Amino acid sequence: MSLRIRDADPADAALLAQWAAAMAQETEGRALVPATVLAGVQAGIADPARARYFVAMEEAVAGGRETITAPVGTLMLTREWSDWRNGDWWWIQSVYVEPGYRRQGVLRALYRHVEQLARDTRGVVGLRLYVEHGNAIAQRTYAALGMRDAGYRIFESGFDG
After folding, report:
1. Per-residue pLDDT of the chain (161 residues; tens, 9 = 90+)
2. Rounded to an integer, what distance in angstroms lies between the CA atom of residue 103 and that of residue 154?
3. How far apart are CA 147 and CA 110, in angstroms?
4. Which of 105, 133, 142, 160 might form a disulfide with 147, Cβ 3.0–4.6 angstroms?
5. Do residues 119 and 109 make contact, with C-beta atoms less than 8 angstroms apart?
6. Any idea where the N-acetyltransferase domain is (predicted)?
């Protein structure tokens, strides 16, 4: 399989929102409100200071001439300022790979792409992500990419509405 990673654009918003909802259902058993997720993805795509989305595209040549591309996975980056390090952590979020393309290198390609961008961007101190405690498959996948448990727990106080 040949993969190309590209920045998302506004035309991708509906698919990325669909994938975000599917990921939430699969990993956390959460049903998200489609209109809210779509608005969130659209806002993220429109404002790179909020988020940056990447799409993995499968590329195949048909008939020896025509290149057919299809989106097969995505991830989103956000930033967190670290005064301890005087730089930004890039957080990997909203990771999703189409079920038929899992375990075929799609996430690895997305990860390596953003890892290289991070290394090439002045002031980025590293990559982080969070994963559900019980999601052992994802934990093994991230460990295989060279990530490690940072030893933190995440606490939150959500505000409904």
Report:
1. 799 999 999 999 999 999 999 999 998 899 999 999 999 999 999 999 999 999 999 998 777 777 889 999 999 999 999 999 999 999 999 999 999 999 999 999 999 999 999 999 999 999 999 998 888 999 999 999 999 999 998 898 999 76
2. 28
3. 14
4. 142
5. no
6. 3-161
- CA pair distance 111, 142, nearest whole angstrom: 9
How far from 145 is each of 44, 46, 138, CA to CA, in Å? 26, 29, 11
Report the predicted TM-score, pTM, of the whole model to 2 decimal places: 0.91
21, 56, 117, 123, 143 from 71: Cα distances, Å: 16, 6, 20, 30, 25
Count the neighbouring beta carbons within 10 Å of the beta carbon of residue 72: 21
List 76's β-bridge partners, or say none: 53, 93
**Do the beta carbons of residue 5 and residue 113 sit within 8 Å?**
yes
> Residue 70 pairs with which residues in a beta bridge?
58
Q: Are 82 and 89 contacting, i.e. CB atoms less than 8 angstroms apart?
A: yes
Question: Residue ranges per domain, the chain?
Answer: 2-144
**String of b and e for 6-42 (b: at least 16 CB within 10 Å)?**
eebeeebbeebbebbbebbeebeeeebeeeebbebbb
